Structures are given as C-alpha cells and as structure tokens.
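Lab notebook, bench 4. Continuing the backlog of folding jobs that were queued last week. Each job is logged with the same field layout so the records can be merged later without manual cleanup. Today's entry covers CpaF family protein, a 431-residue chain. Filled in by technician R.K.

JOB TYPE: sequence-to-structure
TARGET: CpaF family protein
LENGTH: 431
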Amino acid sequence: MALRDRIAAPEKDTEDHDLANIYRERLLEEIDVDELARLSPAQRRVRLERMLSRLLSLDGPILSAQERGALVQRIVDDALGLGVLEPLLADESVTEIMVNGPQDVFVERNGQVQRVPTRFASSEQLYQTIDRIVSSVNRRVDESSPMVDARLPTGERVNVIIPPLALDGPTMTIRRFPTPFRMGELVGKGSLDEQTASLLAACVRARLNVVVSGGTGSGKTTFLNALSGLIPDDERIVTIEDAAELSLQQGHVVRLESRPANVEGRGAVTIRDLVRNALRMRPDRIIVGEVRGGETMDMLQAMNTGHDGSLATVHANSAFDALGRLETLASMSELDLPVTTIRDQINSAIDVVVHLARGVDGSRRVVEVQALVSERRGDYRMSPLAEFVPGPLGPDHTVSGRFVQYGLPDELRERLRRAGETAFVAEDVLG
Ligand SMILES: Nc1ncnc2c1ncn2[C@@H]1O[C@H](COP(=O)(O)OP(=O)(O)OP(=O)(O)O)[C@@H](O)[C@H]1O
Ligand SMILES: [Mg+2]
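JOB STATUS: finished
OUTPUT FIELD FOLLOWS
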C-alpha cells in the first residue's frame, strides 16, 4: 500500500474513529508525501508526530495531553507500521507475538507466555495490519489462500491464517529470532562439552560433511548456525532454507530462500531448485537448513562431487535413524534409484551425524555424535565419537548428566591429520 493510502486508510468502528479520521485527512493535507517517502523510517515517525501534535494543539478539540499523545501515537503507528503491534515489536524483551483475533493478544517474554492489553479496534483493522505485512513481501492472504508465511524487513517471521480455517478470526504469529548462540555459548549452557565442541570444530575446518539431526524444536537450526560459525571466514558459503533463519557472521555468504507457489499455483521455487542452482554458484560450502524431500539426493551428490564440508539438518529420532531418513528422503527424488545406490551415496557423502534432543526441562543438548564408518555399498555402521549419559532427574525435573568421549575411527583420524587438525590425532581417547 502506498504511503498516502496508508495514512488515509480510514479507521472503522472505533469509539473515536471520526476524530482519528479527521486528523488523518488533516495530516495528508499538510505533509509532502514524496518528501516523507525519502526519509528513513525513524525520521518519518518524528516528522509525522511533530506535525500531528502541532495540528492537534492548534485547532484540536479539548483533549488531555495524554489523550492527545495516544491519538498521535495511534495515527502514526497506523500510518507507518504495524499499528497497535508497533510498541510490542519495539520491545526487545518480547520474543513472540501471538494475535488470536482482534481482542486476544499474547506475547512471550523469557519463555513465559502472557496476555497483553493490546487490542485491535476491529477485525477490519487487524486485516489491514495483516495486509500491510503480507503485501510488503508480495504475498497475499484471502479466502483462496488463507495461510501465509512472510518475513518482516527487520527479520521477524510472520505466519497468518484467517477464517474459515482459523475459527476465531484472523490469527497472526510473529516470531522474533533471538541473537543466535555461538558454539562457545552452547558449551557454556551445557548443551555440549568443550571436547566435543573442539572435535566438531576440527571436523568443520577439515571439510567433513556433517548432518545435524533431532526432533521438532530440538535445537537443530540453532546448532547448525553455531556449526556454520566455525567455517573459516575466507570461504564462499551458500545457505538454502525454506524460511531464512540462519544468521552467519562470515563475510562471504549468499542466502537463498525457497518460495511457495502463488495463488495460481505457479512460480514455486523449491529447496531442490535452489540446491541445483547453488552448484552453479561456485560455493565452497553449501548449507541446507533442513532436508525434507528429493533435494536430499541433490545434496548428497553435491557432497560427493567436491562440495565437501557441507552441512544440513534432518528430522530424526537418533543419529542412526537420520541415515534411514536421508535414505527415504533421497528416494523421493524423481530419479528412480535402487536403494543400494542411495546407500552408496550416503555412505560416501556423510561423515558425521550430531544428534540433539530436548530434555524434559526444556534444555537442548547434543546427545550423540557418530561417525559413519560403513563400506560404500554396505549396511550403515556408525562409530560413536561422543555421547551424553543422563543421570537421575534433579529437582523440578532438571536434566543432568555427563558427556563421554570415544576414540576416533582410523579413517576419521587420518582425515583430520591430513587437514592439519593434529590436536585429535595423537590421543586414542579424548578427555
Ligand atoms: N542449546 C540450546 N539451549 C537453549 N535453548 C535452545 C538451544 N537450542 C535451541 N534453543 C531454543 O529452542 C528453540 C528451538 O530451536 P531451533 O529452532 O534451533 O530448533 P529446531 O530443531 O530447528 O526446530 P524445528 O524443528 O522447528 O526446525 C528456539 O527458541 C531456540 O532459541
Ligand atoms: Mg529448524
């Protein structure tokens, strides 16, 4: 929506909508929209606030300073951004905003979900906010396409689902991504121990192909991000995701994001398309956020044809199960490959699987690190590198335990040695 239309968009059904609408119009008469468009968002806000305050104090009805402030805030929020949600978005401690219809807004702060007094004046106003968000990323939401995922320019993910699918009105979930954990911080939190972290760092530097596995919400993306942080800064990295979540610190990163089909069912760009495209981009490393289908075959082939040092996550129940999952997913490609061929690809592509789990206390941990040591066409065989051995549950069901390390299989030791990662070569058993 153009800036002018936004400012003009009349409010409906609010107690004092007449007043707000009068001042919207007065504002439009006074401002130079083209000039406003050239200002930064922060400058725009200041400009509009000043102008409105002046108008209100010049000829305004009798409003208290507080009422006047609230009216200015409301008109400016609506004109510039996400209306009543703006103050929540500006609040750094809010990690998630959940709008269940116009009257029910919840936020998450420090892991706690709480209801907030924020209200939309009407369903109409909520729809306007939703429209503004989705149209800014060239998506639309209406009865024929009642669910949509979008990303705000500031990085937050937004999901919208509207009636008739959502029974109690338009529903919107905005997730803010907290600053991602680096590997050192994960060690600090007890998500893995120091030795395992250094071993994985060596594996990444030595260009081993590493898969991160785990269940829903087990911390796969977070861990993948931390692992990616160990890639040397001079490498060209291409990341491929459904919804860009990774945030790499390196200087040479190209981020690709898939796109769903439009309302006419056209224009979809899949993870698979992006993996294939990435191969033509001269990447040193390819990072696939999560493999979910036939692109797994392309990724394995890429890993086997010189794009080693690649990283991906997969949904699985154990490190061993991850291999079976990869096999199933790879068989979903249209290439009708016999299972032995797929197995061959997996055996030669994958070097290490890191499996994560979420504890009953909400903690996330590395619970196994396994090296794949099987012969090319043989059954999968894994050799444990590290493991979390849980102890008895503490008070309030807190999970505790210890990490144990195992000796490196010869082939892995040799690869690390050849890559100059000598720290792991001498010792038989780490720690
Ligand atoms: N090691 C950790 N310690 C504490 N919190 C963590 C840790 N790893 C992840 N989290 C938190 O857990 C939540 C889920 O993490 P993440 O998105 O990485 O998991 P996921 O396995 O990729 O989830 P999904 O299955 O949805 O893709 C996030 O809020 C994240 O900040
Ligand atoms: Mg994830």
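OBSERVATION: Residues 220-221, 290 surround magnesium ion (ligand 2) (CB under 6 Å).
SIGNED: R.K.
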